Fold this protein.
Amino acid sequence: MANNECSFDTDMVSRLIRKRRTIKPNAYDDRPVPNAIIEKIIENAHWAPTHGQTFPWRFFVCCGDARKNLANTLCDIYRMITPKDLFKEKKYTGLRQNVLAAPVTISIAMKRDETGKIQEIDEVMAVGCAVQNMHLTATAYGLGGFWSTHSAATSRRYCDHLGLNQGDKALGLFFIGYPKSPWPLGKRGPITEVACWED
Ligand SMILES: Cc1cc2nc3c(=O)[nH]c(=O)nc-3n(C[C@H](O)[C@H](O)[C@H](O)COP(=O)(O)O)c2cc1C
């Protein structure tokens, strides 16, 4: 394709977008995800739009034995930040199980531009776009993905653990793995429910 050409198989693009599904770690098998694929997922995330070219996304990849430390850290944080009457055992054990069951967990963060010239909401939305790029790329490789915004993974304490600054945000965990069961079907209503236009 020439540099100035913009031509795609639009059916394929739509198919990829609609095929993307949230698939949780308990539905992954044990196959490791090759590093080359993880790198591609992150490279494509890095191509997300960014207001003012601040590139606010930060990714912390965790796989292999490091997952045990991550599971312990997040569970400890959940216990620490959750008032006793709100503590849910299922949320605690589920967090550990997710981290251990997924071959790859990517912690998602937003690094605030120090000049503050771009409003925070734009920086957060840019990270959302980056995660969508990750999820679509994972889908193209036959990988399931799950963006979890568990309270521990979005906490100030986890931000500190990641070495982030005061204005930065931890925006959850993105789990990746090969699904062991058939790819789930998605469901969306007609666009008239969410869009209107005038001629
Ligand atoms: C910003 C964001 C945060 C999310 N956090 C959670 C979460 O904490 N727990 C969860 O079960 N799903 C979470 N999801 C996934 C949604 O539940 C999922 O996208 C929705 O069910 C639609 O399914 P689909 O992704 O297969 O289209 C999150 C999605 C987004 C965009």
The helical segments are 10-19, 35-45, 66-81, 89-101, 120-140, 156-161.
